[in-house]
Amino acid sequence: MSQLKYCQGPKCHTYDTKDRKKGPKDNKRNETRRRSSFYYLNNNACSMQCQGDWFDVYGSRALQHFGYLTQPKVLTQDNAWRVRRDWRADTDTFYAYNYLTEERRPLTQEQYNNDSAVTDDGRLAI
Ligand SMILES: [Zn+2]
Predict the structure, then answer these.
(1) Residue 105: beta bridge partners?
(2) Does residue 56 come out as left (phi exceeding 0), alpha (psi in the -120 to 50 range) or beta?
(3) Which pTM value belongs to this model?
(4) Tens of pLDDT along 13-56?
(5) Rounded-to-integer distance, Cα 58 and Cα 60, Å
(6) Please, what is the Cα angle at 98 between 97 and 100, to 5 degrees?
(7) Beta partners for 96?
(8) Does 89 have pLDDT greater than 70?
(9) What is the CA(54)–ligand 1 centre distance, in A?
(10) Nearest to 95 by CA among 123, 118, 79, 78
(11) What is the CA(29)–ligand 1 centre distance, in A?
(12) CA of 20 to the centre of ligand 1 (A)
């Protein structure tokens, strides 16, 4: 069984729902949600609202920490590769596709499956 963790939304406890209510009658309180998994904020927030609340409080600090872009990122022929699969073919075909030049390079199913043909930043690795 996976471990329970708290929603990271800074205002989670302020949303008044039944599942957040804890404590006996004379000491009622609302608590941050605790679950084994979440759908938002990369598995760290219980709702879109809590994700947005987190971003409002911490988003600009995260940018300061990790650094702002100071010049544009550029897509060129060198980093415009994506791995694709042609589902329409009688037998599946796999290829790397450059969406600036429209060039195709055939891939094996293994290269397609293990994501080794194209780097995360779009460069051809074969
Ligand atoms: Zn929450």
Answers:
(1) 96
(2) alpha
(3) 0.68
(4) 999 999 999 999 999 999 999 999 999 999 999 999 999 999 99
(5) 6
(6) 145
(7) 83, 105
(8) no
(9) 9
(10) 118
(11) 15
(12) 9
CA of 66 to the centre of ligand 1 (A): 24
Tokens of 5: 């963790």
β-strand pairing of 104-107 with 93-98: antiparallel
Which residues 6+ apart lie within 8 Å of 56 measured at CB?
none
Nearest to 8 by CA among 56, 41, 48: 41
Tokens found for residue 106? 């055939």
Beta carbons of 123 and 81 less than 8 angstroms apart: yes
The answer on pLDDT for 1 being more than 80 is no
pLDDT at 33: 97
What's the token pair of residue 72? 């544009």
CA of 37 to the centre of ligand 1 (A): 11
- 12 burial level (CB within 10 Å; 0-12, 13-18, 19+): buried
φ/ψ of residue 74, rounded to 5: -130, 130
